[in-house]
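Predict structure. Chain length: 402.
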Amino acid sequence: MNTTHIQTLSDLQAIDLPAQAAQALALTLSLAQINSGSSHIAGVIAVQQQLQARLEALGLDCHLQKTAEPQAAPVLLAQLNPTAKQRLLLVGHADTVFPADSPFQSITQLDELRLRGPGLADMKGGLAVMLAALENALPHFQQQAMGVDVLINGDEETGSLHSRPLIEHYARQACAALVYEPVMSSGALAGARAASANISYHFTGLAAHAGREFHAGRNAVNAAAQLAFAVDAIWRQYDDVTLNNAALHGGDTFNTVPAEAVLRINGRSRDQQQLEQALQAVEHAAQAIAAERAVQVQRQGGIHRPAKMSSSRQQYLEQCITQIGAQQGLNLQFQDTNGVCDGNIIAHVGTPVVDTMGVRGGLIHTHDEFLEVDSIAERIALNTAVYHHFNTHTLQEVSLSC
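Prediction complete.
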């Protein structure tokens, strides 16, 4: 394994790419060298500003749009032909799951075809692919007066809680949307997606000295732990629900009965009704435990990603992209998944969306995340062909109906 840190194309060994793919890879490397963990707002903005400069150079009108939360990352909005009625929405995210203090900060070459690094696949490679394909298709969009909206948010990895209203607004105006998440580990594109919920239970008990007044205390950690075991039992009662006890925080010192504890839970299901029922069971359990242990409990959060379900418009868009891929020798297939992304939000407002138009790679969200370099040229070609199809067929034809 080559452990030399990769910063520029000249650092790579035995990789030969077409010129445009090489430029896209250079941009990917540049973006990945910027830490843009969701909580590192300065890094997120730095990535957005680099993309903004590229989009403005292509002639798009760009600005950073603030959300309703002043402390949150802005959303980069770029538009072509903003008054055109026929609109295509392109969506990506600048943030990663790796915080500013993560040890995973550098890029290394694993072999001739793979690079390892933070955000290479999810989704800085996808952003570079989108820009390259957009550059290819730009003259056709201008000739046809096709409207394009590009949204790059900075809170996707934490649920797009602040950017969601903007995504919904522009999705409602579009006849079709593409999102630049990486393909799935199987190589398939994502079809239906699960609903996802992030919920926190905050228990408040009573602190006491663990030796002198142990029995006077009310242990919040015990209450949270009891709920964690209840959660693990609840999801097993359903056919298509997962409930993950993601984190339990509480206590401070060995000799104090802890008065505070927080349990964080992620729930997912492609059957949103089942997920809602399971979450209601968790709520009943939390209240019963709080009453039994004489502690207080507060709940925050809920379903933040609605289920992405199939529809006739969705199926038609998927068939179009499958056929375009076949013309390029690609055997594109769609596979349902419990993963979630901004495609959930777009589909929820009724706009057909294919949300895995980015690169091939794997082990995303881990310190072994990698990018398959040869997929850059492949995905630029695919996206360029898809954009061309949108120009030679109205978006109403592609999505059946606006």
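Summary: The chain has two domains: 2-192+307-399, 195-305.
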